Amino acid sequence: MKTPPLMPKAAHPTVSREFIVTPKFAFERLDHYLIRQQAHPSRTFLQRLIKEGNIRVNDQIVKPHYKIRPGDRLICRIPTPTPLDLVPEPIPLDVLYEDTALIVLNKPAGLVMHPAPGHHTGTLVHALLAHCKDLSGIGGRERPGLVHRLDKDTSGVIVVAKTDSAHRSLSLQFKTHSIRRQYQALVVGRLPKNSGTIDLAIGRDRWERKKISHRTARPREAVTAYRVAERFDAATRVEVHPQTGRTHQIRVHFASLKHPVLGDRTYGGRAAMLDFVPTDRQMLHAERLGFVHPERREHVEFYAPLPADMERAIEILRQSPVPAKRS
């Protein structure tokens, strides 16, 4: 059967790119190779284009995991960012830094990053569209400019790209784990060691699909380094340096040590709560973020102080011994 011709020109513009595979990349997966060549920062997006026939090898439709060979000719038709159709909302933003390439924010706990089921308005994206008149759509119609994320109830520093080139640069830095990230967390109980590294592969849980855990069919490397910053009778304050950027990584890793993040009912259940410390979210804060500026090509670093609810929790912990167990 004949391979159908490339699909007709889409309603929105596309960029055509051609690659000839050299021996250096022999037998690498097609989608991995295209990420390496910066055809697009999203592997999921590239995989969809391959399946749709917009990326072909020697004019043939292949699968994303196709192993490329020396001399293979790759033709890619990549749609340019589509116009955004979300309605901007004047939600206040705590801007730490902004220039023509990017914006750095201190995200409050409770703010959802982007539209999703159950959160069609009032997200960070809606606020960004009101604040940044020239925000790039490269992250997708619902995630313009986003290159990483924080959970809804995690506060702290986040960077958003305002141009396509900044998005590609930052995405690559996150992919290669060259970004410097530092979190502050309060975990339940007293950690036995003053520092350590948690090396536990995680992925989507086999039975509870909304959770991440080590009980997964597709484990991905996840490494978290930590240092004890302060000890209390009932909890420990830790400085956390994730070496990888998996979803819910810090929360899952500390729960695996039986020291869940304080307030994290999802991964700690009742064990994550202390009756004398009122919390309505996990006590996790992205304190520092460092990266190479996409345009200035120099290392920059940004800091967000602890939010008021974490400061209050720390003061209570400092003043409160472990309550006596009821008989």
Description of the structure:
- The chain is α+β, with helices and mostly antiparallel strands and about 325 residues long.
- The protein contains 7 helices and 14 strands.
- It has 3 domains: about 15-80, Roll (Structural Genomics Hypothetical 15.5 Kd Protein In mrcA-pckA Intergenic Region, Chain A); about 95-175, Pseudouridine synthase; about 180-320, Pseudouridine synthase, CATH 3.30.2350.10.
- Helix content is about 20%, strand content about 25%.
- Helix 1 (about 30-35) crosses helix 2.
- The longest helix has 12 residues, at about 165-175.
- It is globular and about 70 Å long.
- Mean pLDDT is about 90; it is low at about 5-10.
From the structure above, extract its key features:
327 residues, alpha+beta, Pseudouridine synthase, 9-stranded mixed sheet, 3-stranded antiparallel sheet, 7 helices, 25% strand
Short description:
The protein has helices at 30-36, 43-52, 124-131, 164-175, 249-256, 265-268, 308-319; strands at residues 14-20, 55-57, 73-79, 95-98, 102-107, 155-161, 180-188, 195-199, 203-204, 212-213, 223-231, 235-242, 284-292, 299-303. It is of the alpha+beta class and 327 residues long.
